[in-house]
Structure formats: C-alpha cells, structure tokens
Design a protein that fits this description.
The complex is a heterodimer of chains A (116) and B (114).
Chain A: E1 3-5, E2 10-14, E3 19-21, E4 24-26, E5 32-39, E6 46-52, E7 60-61, E8 64-69, E9 74-79, E10 88-96, E11 105-106, E12 110-115
Parallel strand pairs in A: 2-12
Antiparallel strand pairs in A: 1-4, 3-9, 5-6, 5-10, 7-8, 8-9, 10-11, 10-12
Chain B: E1 5-7, E2 10-13, E3 19-24, E4 31-38, E5 42-50, E6 53-57, E7 64-68, E8 74-78, E9 87-94, E10 104-105, E11 109-113
Parallel strand pairs in B: 2-11
Antiparallel strand pairs in B: 1-3, 3-8, 4-5, 4-9, 5-6, 7-8, 9-10, 9-11
The chains are: A mainly beta (116), B mainly beta (114).
Amino acid sequence: AQTVTQSQPEMSVQEAETVTLSCTYDTSESNYYLFWYKQPPSRQMILVIRQEAYKQQNATENRFSVNFQKAAKSFSLKISDSQLGDTAMYFCAFMGYGGSQGNLIFGKGTKLSVKP
Amino acid sequence: KAGVTQTPRYLIKTRGQQVTLSCSPISGHRSVSWYQQTPGQGLQFLFEYFSETQRNKGNFPGRFSGRQFSNSRSEMNVSTLELGDSALYLCASSLAVRTAAEQYFGPGTRLTVT
C-alpha cells in the first residue's frame, strides 16, 4: 500500500523569505502523480502544484516549485517570497497511475504560518 | 463557472441516526470523490463515482455509502452514526480524463455526532 509522510507538523517563515516543506512517499509503482494541496483556514482545499513521475523536470508554478527525487521517493515543496496569504495547511498527496484517478492518498499535513 | 458546492455546510446528529450529504460538481465534471478529514486520521478517501458508477472505494465500513445521479451530483450516506464519524467531509470533482485530472474541492460539510 502507498503511504505519504510529512515529517514537519508545523513550520513558520517570515514574510518574503523562502521555506521548504518535506514529503516522502512509499510505492512500488513506477508511474504515478504527486500533488501539493493547500488548505487555508477557510477550509477550501486548492491544488498548488502537480508532478508526473515520468517527467524528470521539476514542476514550478510562480513562487511554488518542487524538488522531485524519484529514487529517494522525496517530493518537497519550496515557497519563495512567502506571503501572508500562504498561511495554510499544506498536504502532499499521491495518486497511482493505473488505478482510479479519484483516489488521492494524503500525508498528515504541515501547518505553515507566515509571519509579518 | 461555479465551484463545487456541498450541502449542508454544518450538521449535528445523534448517535444511531443516519445522515445524507450532498455534492454538486463543477459543470461538466463527471467524477466525484469523497474524503473524510479528522484531526487524528487526516484525509482519507471514501469513494469515487464516475457516470453513476462507483469506481473505487476506500477502507470504510459498509455504513458509508454513496451514489451519483445522471447530472453528476453525488450523495453520501452514513447510517447508524457513531461518535467517530464526526469529521469534515470533503467532496471533489474532476473531469476524469485518462491522466490525473485536477480535483477541485468543495468547502466541506462539518458533521458533529453527539
């Protein structure tokens, strides 16, 4: 069974600084997708960034980028120029390629606080 | 385009009762997934529906069931409620193409069982 581990329950960063959230996963599949989701205090979960395992290039979305290390099964999220609106729970998630795309396996989450 | 809507937003029920939660996906989305979020267990997959058929199911007891209608709206039902069923229930919709389509989440239904 696949598992996703986020080892940092809470983190804080000063506004405008850079922070990296860690995520490791375990799977025997060779093709899969990895995601970072953000859940602000208002509770609506939104997708931050997505990585397809067969792609070597790390995904980037504006201030958000990932460091995907397939051999190490590591998928960290870097947030540059942190903003107050980045304060939220961040969840790392895994989805197998062959199965239903509805089944996201989430980590426990990292609570990120951006301080002014 | 309207987002995913869930009703009701908050619900208080008593142990032993049953409850039905509703989810309306984004227009054009045919896949609906349900997740349970609790402080202890985190986010756990319940089931996914596509074109009125359950395609995948998580590791939950049979008290948890769902269905999807021809307009892609989905309902989930929990019978014989237990205190441990208190949670935020999230619904997500996607286009469900062959690659992993982005899942758009609703605001959730907060269920409290007393």
